[in-house]
Amino acid sequence: SLLGELLDFDQAIQEALTFAQQHPQETLILVTADHETGGLGVEGEVDFPRILDQPFSYQVFCDRVSAGASLSEVAGEMWGFPEKIIRSLGGVGNDPNKAFIALARKFSQEVGISWETTAHTARNVPVFVWGEQFPEKLHENTDIFPFLRRFIDDN
């Protein structure tokens, strides 16, 4: 689900760049994030087709299990795990969040990726800008608003 969303985001940025090239004087594209999550890492060869085959997200997984769908059914549909993998987790009961984290770790190992955490990290995030010079230095996220305000006021 994450990789699919990133590919969709990439397509959206391509559309924005196409528009910006046709309207360069009135277009600013700024892409950033408010934080990094998870500390995604690569562990050897990544099985991209299997990652892209994930049919739904964490939220859908949790919603379906919370609504009464069996953990085995939802995990099997999402990752293709057999019942014995689900049983081997032990201790997650019917808590969809705990089950998702345990199963996602197993899936990640199988497809060649790793995560440092299930929460936000303190890493800096990049700022990409097209159409206006953004000073090249480390910025606090609060520096972005004045930059955008100046661009809007100048145009």
Beta strands, count: 4
How does the major sheet shape up?
2 strands, antiparallel
Q: What sort of overall outline do the alpha carbons produce when their principal axes are compared?
A: elongated
Strand content: 5-15%
Q: pLDDT below 50 for ≥5 consecutive residues: which ranges?
A: none
Major sheet strand order: 1-4
Entry summary:
With 155 residues, the protein is mainly alpha-helical.
Summarize the structure in words.
The protein has 155 residues and is mainly α. 50% of the residues lie in helices and 8% in strands. The protein has helices spanning 2-22, 48-52, 58-66, 71-79, 83-89, 96-111, 144-154, and strands spanning 29-31, 40-42, 113-115, 128-130. The strands form two sheets. A two-stranded antiparallel sheet has the order 1-4. A two-stranded antiparallel ribbon has the order 2-3.
